[in-house]
Amino acid sequence: MQLVRFLADSGAEIGVLQGNRIVRARTALTRFAQLDGRLGPFERVFEYACDEPKVFLALGGLVRDALAEAIERDDGSAVVTESGLGALRVLPFVANPEKIFGIGYNYKELCDYERHEYPQRAEIFAKMPTCVTGAYDDVNVTPAVSLVDFESELCVVIGRTARCVSAADALAYVGGYTVMDELSAKILPRPKVPGKTESLPQKAVDQFGPLGAVVITPDEIPDPSALTMIARVNGEERQNFPTSDMVHGVPALVEQISSIITLRPGDMIATGTSVGCGIVDVPPRLLNDGDVVECEIVGYPGCRNIIRIPAQKKKRAAT
User: Fold this and answer.
1) What is the overall mean pLDDT for the chain?
2) pTM of the predicted model as reported, rounded to 2 decimal places
3) Same domain flag for 264 and 143
């Protein structure tokens, strides 16, 4: 199931994307409850979940199965549009995650290219909730930053509270997957010791986390290591890599993080990137003001953002 959150006349709503058709979850479930008494005491809970994405994720298969049947039995009254995502104002599915984690040097090809040893434990850093940006919104970079890079990454969205979870059980705590353009502020010339600048000033800049238009539920992606990530800049493909190349896969990341920090519904883990991002090129090919960056999980709607860098405009004006 592909979940989307969009702005309607009555406010933010949750929907399901099926091809170009988007179905309003609340309407479908309400009608289903009227037709079939099986929802019973869950009806009010499901109504609340349609207003609270974190609750929706936490209910997992319970609400998902009911919603799938509700959509199948819908008479068309729950259809918002049949013209695709472009007909709606798409919002981040979770706009206010409690925590966002990123992972450095988590792809073997990138480690090999940069002669970086495969990390024995994942290199974890923090982003901020204020990094979250909509799939089709402009990224308005703070004037304090002029050098910006893109990174297409598989983003894990937590569905259930996870504390000290084993890798064997970890996927049961995942609410869904999306793509994140894990934008980063950069320093040139590049530091000689890789990974030593992965800190808040580089990674946690406001709006530096555009998310894909949909969250794909785990029933549709049973194996997160079987995906392909893409990044394009101004239409040029710059990244194309398989998630099977991760040093530490999704289960291991959930295990390691939850062993020290409790993960809650809506928390996110951006699982790292591979070769092709601008800083890796020689010479570096960082983003320019006005560049259009597209990131996606192949087969699913991703994000497409114009990057606005006022510091570059100011520099051009000064020269």
Assistant:
1) 94
2) 0.95
3) yes
